[in-house]
Structures are given as C-alpha cells and as structure tokens.
Amino acid sequence: MVRSLILAVLLLAFPSPELSSEEQSPVQLLFEGYYKITIDGSHSGYVIQRYRLDRNKKEFESTYFIRTSEAAGNTAESLKATANQRFEPLAYEYTWASGPENSRQIDARFVGQTMMARTGEESIRLELPEGTFLSSFLSYLMLQSGLKKGLRLSYQTVLEESGSLAQGVARITGETELFGLKAFKVENRLIEEGKGESRFVSHITPEGVVLKNSSPERKIEFTLVAQAEEATRGFQLPTSTIETLFGSVPAGRTHPLASPIDQNLPEENPES
Q1: Per-residue pLDDT reduced to its tens digit, 34-86
Q2: What are phi and psi of 232, to 5 degrees?
Q3: Are strands 196-204 and 220-225 parallel, antiparallel or unpaired?
C-alpha cells in the first residue's frame, strides 16, 4: 500500500516547465523536494523527488529515492525515468530492496509503442496503447487540460515498479488552501490488472506540485516539507547510493514551500 501511495504522489508531482528558446542552462531544474511519510501519525520514511529538463536533448527526467522505516517494510526504492518533449516514454531504471536478499530491478527501453525490459533473468515485452505515459509524467495530462474544479481525466500508464499497464481516473473535486497556498483537491483512482483498485486524495498547487497526498482509510500521508531534515530526521542517509542516483545529495529547495533565501542558496548536502 505504501508503494501504491508513492505512485499517486508521482502521478501528480510534476510542475509545468517553460520551454522558451532563450539562452539558458542546458539542464533546467524544475522541481526538487523532500516528502515526509507518516503512517497513523508516525514518521515512517521519506521521498526525495527531482524533475529536470534537458534542453539540448529535449528530454524530461524524473528521479526519486524512497526510504521507509522497519515498521513500514524497511525498504529502499529508486527510479530514473526519461521521456521526450511529447512525454513519450524513452527509458527507465527502477530498483527496490527490502534487506540484502529481497530485491527487484527493472531496466526498460522503449521503441515506438513497444516496451522491452529485463528484470533479473525475466524479459518483459509490452505493447502500449497510443497515448500511454510513464507514471512519473502523467500530471502533464492534467496540466495540459487546465487545472480547475470539475476536471476529470482518464488515462493509461506504465507502472515502473512492476513494468505493467494500469488505468486511472483523476478528478478535481474542490479548491482549498494548504500551507498558505492555493490548492486543488484531487481524487485519484488507479486500477492495475489483477491487483484491484486503489484510491488516494492529493492536494496540488495550480502549477501541479503535490503538497500532500493521503489514503485516509490506511492512515498514510506524504507531505512536502520546507527543509530536507524534516523528512529525513531519524534516518541515516545512504549517501553513496543517493549520490550515485542524483549526482549529489539533493538540497530539496526548488518548490513553493522553500523560503526565497533557501531557494537562492548554493546546493549542499542536507543533514541526516
């Protein structure tokens, strides 16, 4: 259930980039932040999420790292996914581990509407319906439709964690304020073949940034925090793993909750 709720965060976490032709850095950081995971009110893990745009390659990149406590499964999970400027899937690498002897890895590449992937000794070949996106980029469907109360979006997505297809429906059911920011309430329903239905509630800004995501029935919440240590406090950061994935330990200051002063500071490693 924790992994399914993480997916719901990622479905709606991608802020809208500006694709101007002005002279800018070839790689633009679009979003970088930390989410605190709580289960029944108890701090149970964290998510590090980053989105970037490579202007030269005209590719979008989604990268995340997730760590949960022993009570929440003692898992470590990571993803690096890329899509072209039309958000058609290009590739992704996914890993999941719970202890040294229980792990899973998927390496997937896309040619046209065909996904070819390997997970251990198993090969996966999946023909994708036209318009299928990687789950990490699906919020663009809502952004392109215009975020407003009453918006209803049906979609098909590749679930990176399983290399399978799923269908979903997201509806904006209201407007509210959270952390001093305007937010839309989004009800999301996701159906994966053979695994049933999951329902989640998200609060997102007009730019598509998830402020909070929850499953009230399961008492699980993911909350964007202003500073990294709010999410990672009590956890030992696996620095080498995170640096290999991201290139450095993300500061997590490119989002609307970070103070203007923090957003202008140079990158530095957050405290564990």
Answers
A1: 999 999 999 999 999 999 999 999 999 999 999 999 989 999 999 999 999 88
A2: -95, -5
A3: unpaired
Are the CB atoms for 232 and 251 separated by under 8 Å? Answer: no
CB atoms under 10 Å from CB of 37, counted, come to 25
- C-alpha to C-alpha distances, 19 to 28, 116, 185, 245, nearest whole angstrom: 10, 30, 27, 25
Strand partners, 50: 32, 63
CA atoms within 13 A on the CB side of 189: 9
Pick from 131, 133, 132, 142: nearest CA to 209: 142
Q: How far apart are CA 254 and CA 226, in angstroms?
A: 10
**DSSP codes of every residue in 146-181:** ---TT-EEEEEEEETTTTEEEEEEEEEEEEEEETTE
**Per-residue pLDDT tens for 161-209?**
999 999 999 899 999 999 999 999 999 898 887 777 888 999 989 888 8
Give the three-state DSSP class for 206. coil
For residues 218 and 242, what is the distance between their CA atoms, to the nearest angstrom?
29
Contact 187, 179 (CB under 8 A): no
Rounded CA-CA distance 156/136 in Å is: 12
pLDDT tens digit string along 87-122?
Answer: 899 999 999 999 778 999 999 999 999 999 999 889
